[in-house]
């Protein structure tokens, strides 16, 4: 049986007729990649609007945003749909909260608390209508809307009935990659940490697109809740040519990560919300095979990862060491100290303090200095008044706001 016999007839014939050509290594310059990225950004936006009829906008940073908000609003009661559709701040809408017996709320980016959007309470019938519009929820009580990046999370009663919904707006942001574009060219693993809602998943999505489309890497996204690639079997266009592997149960994420490497000859794996010991061990196993990892973890600062016994393996792991008398005197410290026990899984760790204010650590150096009670030097990445990216090198960590 020929090697192309399993392919469709047209592809099999095409591959047989190809004349062999020598492989050629491609070299990309930052200037060419930057221009190519800009062109592809506009192409993706145009394609998204043409195919999905999605609403899009651009912010002052030059980023393009595609949200397809209309699809999410269809889940809501009709009066809320009309109200939010005409809302002046609709581009900043973060999520809509529907809790049984309470007034519905809308939460916006950069705004504390929520705004009441109706003076009548949410009813059982409205929650049932929303559930029917969304469809089946997964074991993690999350669901999506096919062809979009929106996420609906359910709160259930003790008997299993839905008593609350969090309807999160999913946005495909194009052009935000310039905050970290230079680091991608090193081919090193990067871990993002930050508070919920700061944009970690959004950045991961665009990194997957740029690495697959512009850098021509073999990229796969291990998508636990279909939050990166969107709901449905066909992933959202925002991830470009990156492949997406869905996870049937959240507890199986680590298995799918290893399967992705063993079965699909990948160069890059993108994984969101690393939170268990098994996932941390899977990340280390993948990194030791020379695979580039792009991931996020629960925590706001590097210190949170150091102090987390489950996730500390991502930054090399921490163990207790007893020093000799001479070494203790040389270091001017106690004889029992904490030290990093292995090379870090992720070469860089980025604290996303805000959407436009990031702190970049060279993981091994920062961890070693922090464990010794010293102040590491970091890079601060931010946007200036004109929303251009500014990188401040060798800034003391304790001076970062």
Automatic annotation (TrEMBL):
GO molecular function list: ATP binding
Record InterPro entries: AAA+_ATPase (IPR003593), P-loop_NTPase (IPR027417), Spore_III_AA_AAA+_ATPase (IPR045735)
Pfam assignment, any one: Spore_III_AA
Gene3D superfamilies: P-loop containing nucleotide triphosphate hydrolases (3.40.50.300)
Assigned keywords, A-Z: ATP-binding, Nucleotide-binding
Keyword tRNA-binding: no
Keyword ATP-binding: yes
This protein's name: AAA+ ATPase domain-containing protein
Source organism of this protein record: Acacia crassicarpa
Taxonomic lineage of the native organism: Eukaryota, Viridiplantae, Streptophyta, Embryophyta, Tracheophyta
């Amino acid at each position: 049986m020929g090697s192309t016999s399993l392919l469709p007839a047209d592809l099999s014939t095409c591959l047989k007729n190809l004349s062999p050509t020598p492989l050629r290594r491609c070299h990309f310059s930052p200037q060419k990649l930057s221009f190519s990225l800009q062109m592809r950004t506009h192409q993706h936006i145009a394609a998204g609007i043409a195919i999905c009829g999605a609403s899009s906008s651009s912010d002052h940073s030059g980023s393009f945003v595609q949200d397809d908000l209309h699809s999410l609003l269809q889940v809501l009661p009709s009066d809320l749909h009309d109200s939010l559709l005409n809302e002046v701040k609709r581009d900043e809408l973060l999520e809509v909260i529907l809790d049984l017996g309470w007034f519905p709320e809308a939460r916006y980016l950069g705004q504390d608390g929520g705004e009441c959007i109706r003076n009548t309470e949410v009813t059982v019938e409205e929650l049932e209508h929303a559930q029917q519009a969304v469809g089946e929820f997964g074991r993690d009580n999350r669901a999506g809307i096919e062809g979009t990046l929106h996420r609906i999370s359910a709160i259930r009663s003790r008997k299993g009935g839905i008593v609350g919904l969090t309807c999160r707006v999913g946005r495909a942001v194009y052009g935000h990659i310039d905050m970290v574009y230079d680091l991608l060219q090193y081919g090193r693993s990067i871990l993002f940490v930050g508070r919920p809602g700061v944009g970690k998943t959004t950045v991961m999505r665009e990194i997957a697109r740029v690495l697959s489309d512009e850098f021509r890497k073999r990229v796969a996204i291990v998508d636990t809740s279909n939050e990166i690639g969107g709901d449905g079997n066909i992933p959202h266009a925002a991830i470009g040519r990156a492949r997406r592997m869905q996870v049937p149960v959240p507890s199986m994420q680590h298995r799918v990560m290893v399967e992705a490497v063993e079965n699909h000859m990948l160069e890059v794996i993108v994984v969101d919300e690393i939170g268990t010991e098994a996932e941390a061990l899977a990340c280390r196993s993948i990194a030791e095979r020379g695979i580039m990892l792009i991931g996020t973890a629960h925590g706001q600062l590097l210190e949170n990862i150091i102090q987390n016994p489950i996730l500390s393996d991502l930054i090399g792991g921490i163990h207790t060491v007893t020093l000799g008398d001479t070494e203790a005197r040389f270091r001017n410290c106690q004889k029992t100290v904490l030290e990093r026990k292995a090379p870090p899984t992720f070469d860089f760790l980025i604290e996303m303090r805000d959407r436009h204010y990031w702190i970049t650590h060279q993981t091994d150096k920062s961890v070693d200095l922090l464990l010794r009670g010293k102040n590491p030097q970091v890079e601060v990445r931010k946007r200036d008044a004109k929303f251009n990216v500014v990188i401040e090198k060798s800034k003391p960590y304790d001076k970062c706001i």
